[in-house]
Design goal:
The protein is of the alpha/beta class and 289 residues long. The chain has 2 domains: 167 residues, Rossmann fold (3-Layer(aba) Sandwich), CATH 3.40.50; 94 residues, no CATH class. It contains 10 helices and 10 strands. The strands form 2 sheets. An 8-stranded mixed beta sheet has the order 1-10-9-2-5-8-7-6, sandwiched between helices. Strand 7 and strand 8 form a beta hairpin. Helix 6 packs across helix 7 and helix 9 crosses helix 10. The longest helix is centred in the C-terminal third of the chain and has 17 residues. The protein is globular. About 8% of the residues have low confidence.
Length: 289
């Protein structure tokens, strides 16, 4: 069964009350999100195609993966100096930004369940971010089931630590691994007897992958496509405004010596006073602050 929910509402609570052998939870866009649009999961939808287009050395198609990203730089093939620079810039941005909970009530419910039910994080984040991830989750009192310690599986180079599975990415394409295939490896490694799974993610493609794994292994699957953050953005800004906000925040962050990140409204106010039409992420030289 699949559900698309935009609030931690009565239906959501009902689904959490069912009995599961395993509950899987995405991190970005479900548990937490940046305090601003820049570096959010929704921002990458517009950013990734532009970055890929600018890096003309890329020789694979990224379009079909646009709804299956969480490891932001995964779509940039670091085959040259410029690509490496972009990857480093994004890493710096992500480790600088502040995060906020998407819904603290949901966090409290999941943390409570983790004491009686196996609750794992399942994220496309790179393992390089695990310390930062753990720190922010601790700030929000989000707890996963961590009794299994640290485990790495071969092939996909994925890692389980502190109750979070970091799925990793392909070394040749740098694309994040299929969450369903990685989950299969960890279930086998841990020797789990799983009959029913709940998976909460903000992108349908990730739900598709885990559901496929469950269907192939006769596991009951309940999926929640949780779109609270996406819907909140749509209510506050138009698509065109978000594009301008992201551009302004991106350029300001990398040009400001203190690496300050503009708030969404602050960035929009600047854009409304300036002509930003035609600007992009990497080929502009005429921005001024």
């Amino acid at each position: 069964m699949r559900y698309r929910l935009s609030d931690y509402d009565h239906k959501f609570k009902e689904l959490l009350e069912e009995d599961y052998d395993l509950i899987l939870v995405d991190i970005d866009g479900v548990i937490m999100t940046p305090s601003q649009y820049l570096c959010s999961s929704q921002w990458y939808v517009s950013y990734i195609p532009q970055a890929a287009s600018y890096l003309h050395q890329i020789d694979y198609v990224v379009g079909s993966y646009l709804d299956n990203f969480e490891f932001y730089t995964s779509y940039i093939k670091p085959s040259n100096e410029l690509a490496t620079k972009i990857t480093e810039d994004l890493y710096h941005c992500l480790t600088t930004t502040n995060f906020r909970p998407v819904d603290q009530n949901l966090i409290e419910a999941l943390a409570s369940l983790s004491t009686s039910t196996l609750v794992f994080g399942l994220t496309g984040r790179a393992y390089d971010f695990h310390n930062q991830t753990a720190s922010w989750l601790n700030n929000f009192d989000m707890k996963f089931t961590s009794a299994h310690g640290d485990i790495r599986v071969g092939g996909y180079n994925s890692q389980l630590t502190s109750g979070i599975i970091y799925v990793g990415h392909d070394e040749k394409t740098a694309l994040p691994h299929d969450k369903g295939k990685v989950l299969n490896l960890f279930i086998e490694k841990l020797g789990l007897n799983v009959q029913k799974v709940l998976f909460i993610d903000d992108f349908a493609k990730n739900l598709d992958h885990v559901q496929k794994f469950c269907d192939q292994n006769q596991i009951d699957f309940v999926g929640i496509e949780y779109v609270e953050y996406e819907e909140a953005l749509k209510q506050s800004y138009t698509t065109e405004q978000l594009q301008s906000i992201g551009l302004a925040q991106f350029h300001h962050f990398f040009r400001n010596e203190n690496h300050a990140i503009l708030g969404d409204q602050e960035a929009l106010n600047y854009c409304e006073q300036s002509d930003v039409s035609g600007h992009s992420y990497y080929n502009d030289t005429d921005w001024s602050w």
